[in-house]
């Protein structure tokens, strides 16, 4: 169990859903932005806002491929993000076990 508080960056429901969705992939795998958007049923602007916060923390990375109308962005969970999610999960389990 982690003794620290829950990571407020991850604790936001949308960001938690993003990280959990990406964590379900094998290490190194990614999701296209449109697919992640459809899976989470978010607007493009909402997803972009949350991804920027996660990317600023080093929890996810995105890569733009191509140019113009055929360009696309893929998103992946970083090792730092996976560790942060694991720590968050341990802390949450510790809190629940204490109830």
Notable characteristics:
99 residues, alpha+beta, 3-stranded antiparallel sheet, elongated
Describe this structure in words.
- The protein has 99 residues and is of the alpha+beta class.
- It is 56% helix and 14% strand.
- It has 5 helices and 3 strands, in the order ααβααββα.
- It has a 3-stranded antiparallel sheet with strand order 1-3-2.
- The H-and-E topology, N to C, reads as HHEHHEEH
Q: Regions with pLDDT < 50 over 5+ consecutive residues?
A: none
Distance between the termini: 14 Å
- Helix share of residues? 55-70%
Figure out the total of helices: 5
Shape: elongated
Please tally the β strands and state the result. 3
Biggest sheet overview: 3 strands, antiparallel
Q: Order of strands in the sheet with the most strands?
A: 1-3-2
User: What proportion of the residues form beta strands (DSSP E)?
Assistant: 5-15%
Structural class, by secondary structure, is alpha+beta
Task: Itemize the secondary structure elements and their pairings.
Layout: H1 8-11, H2 13-23, E1 31-32, H3 33-40, H4 44-56, E2 60-65, E3 72-77, H5 79-97
Antiparallel strand pairs: 1-3, 2-3
Summarize the model shown.
With 99 residues, the chain is of the alpha+beta class. Helix content is 56%, strand content 14%. The mean pLDDT is 92.
